[in-house]
TrEMBL record:
Entry's family note: Belongs to the LOB domain-containing protein family.
Protein species of origin: Brassica carinata
Pfam families referenced in this protein's UniProt entry, alphabetically: LOB
Region described as Disordered: spans on this chain: 158-184
All copies of domain LOB, residue ranges: 11-112
Name the record gives this protein: LOB domain-containing protein
InterPro entries in alphabetical order: LOB
Source domain of life: Eukaryota
PROSITE patterns named in the record: LOB
PANTHER family registered for this protein in UniProt: LOB DOMAIN-CONTAINING PROTEIN 4-RELATED, PROTEIN LATERAL ORGAN BOUNDARIES
């Protein structure tokens, strides 16, 4: 989100404040890292580095920069919370949830068809049987494979953090609480 008051009050942007340098009028960071959000730049700097972010923003067209900064900030936040999987862990969790819900929906539809066939007149049977059915869902490819090694210790066989194991799952929208309601 671009800040409309980049240097209106002579306050340096969060990037320049973090890097302890003077925020110049043409600062490439100022529209995207307002002084009110210092954690946003701190995370991006920690994961990607200020120099790399500067290079990236300079290579992009001005209308693409805001989306790029938002993506960098999201990935950086996810990497800070889960250094191994980052946002891929959240994506994988959501894909598994969609797959599970699709199976539940298919089972419910099968029950409805079965119930409809057992309690229908012969004229309804044709309507129920020949209704267009959705295509079967494709099996999602696991993004976080857990490798099982022969002779590995029990610690090696545990599911990694953030992949829906018994430890709970961190997702950006659950504010650091696991599925059982406790803090992670």
């Amino acid at each position: 989100m671009a800040s409309s008051s980049s240097n209106t009050y002579n306050s340096p942007c969060a990037a320049c404040k973090f890097l302890r340098r003077k925020c110049m009028p043409g600062c490439i960071f100022a529209p995207y890292f307002p002084p009110e959000e210092p954690h946003k730049f701190a995370n991006v700097h920690k994961i990607f580095g200020a120099s790399n972010v500067t290079k990236l923003l300079n290579e992009l067209l001005p209308h693409q920069r805001e989306d790029a900064v938002n993506s960098l900030a999201y990935e950086a936040e996810a990497r800070v919370r889960d250094p191994v999987y980052g946002c891929v862990g959240a994506i994988s969790y959501l894909q598994r949830q969609v797959h599970r819900l699709q199976k539940e929906l298919d089972a419910a539809n099968a029950d409805l068809v079965h119930y409809g066939l057992s309690n229908s007149t012969p004229s309804n049977v044709v309507d129920l049987v020949f209704q267009p059915q959705p295509l079967p869902p494709q099996q999602p490819q696991p993004l976080n494979p857990v490798y099982r090694l022969q002779g590995a210790s029990p610690v090696m066989n545990q599911q990694p953090r953030g992949t829906g194991g018994s430890c709970g799952t961190f997702l950006p929208w659950n504010n650091g609480h696991d599925q059982q309601g406790g803090n992670m």
